[in-house]
Amino acid sequence: MAGNIKLIVCDEAADVAKEAAALFADVIKAKPDAVIGLATGSTPEATYAELARMHKEEDLSFAKVTSFNLDEYWGLDGDHDQSYRYFMNGQLFSHVDIRTWNTHVLNGKAVNPQLECQAFEQKILSVGGLDIWLLGIGGNGHIAFNEPGSSVDSRTRLVDLTPETIAANSDGRFFKEASEVPRCALSAGIGTIREARKIVLLATGSGKAPAIAAAVEGAFTPDCPSSLLQDHPDCTFIVDREAAADLKNAG
Ligand code: GLP
To answer: Residues near ligand 1 with C-beta < 6 Å?
Structure first.
């Protein structure tokens, strides 16, 4: 079952970044005050570099753009070098003309996580919802920090991370040891993400191949959270050949 997911298979990871950045640039050019959703992880780094290049060399302006990030580690403040706020500042925000006050990353040190999550949802509503949301995918099929078992209508909330996700984020790219990784995170829900008008999910490398096959061609099930995008009206997966390797119908 492929549902409505549109699949773009690129020869190389660098092409994935170019395709994704072009899609974002199209949205921003058509609507300079676009509301964009952003993701963290290794996968979108090249996309952010390409958007920064387009800002510098092609005058792509983020001056009126509002952004929302998918998630944040619980217990880390924005100055922590493994927080997603810190990641976004370093990878994108400091390289483009987006206004800091228009960037929304959940506060991992909020006094009350429920209120923090409600305020995040309210803010999304108050700006009219998201025009486009960029996603990565976990090896277990998670999106944001919606681990397997997350429901299709889940909202922004405090969640527990699986041992698999903790291990994936302590392989030296981010945290050095599993013991350093927070056990919980604040995460936009699957219902929150599904309300974006356009969704773009990126995956590169063979480690993502089983998750991509399950998301695109497997059952619509909370066991694979990314499969819950199958009935979204405008969802594109941009993957490289390695991440597409387990698909039966890669086009
Ligand atoms: C983390 C993030 C996800 C991201 C995933 C994959 O779990 N919360 O949003 O998609 O990592 O990251 P990477 O691109 O590094 O494989």
So the answer is: 39-43, 70-71, 136-138, 144-145, 165
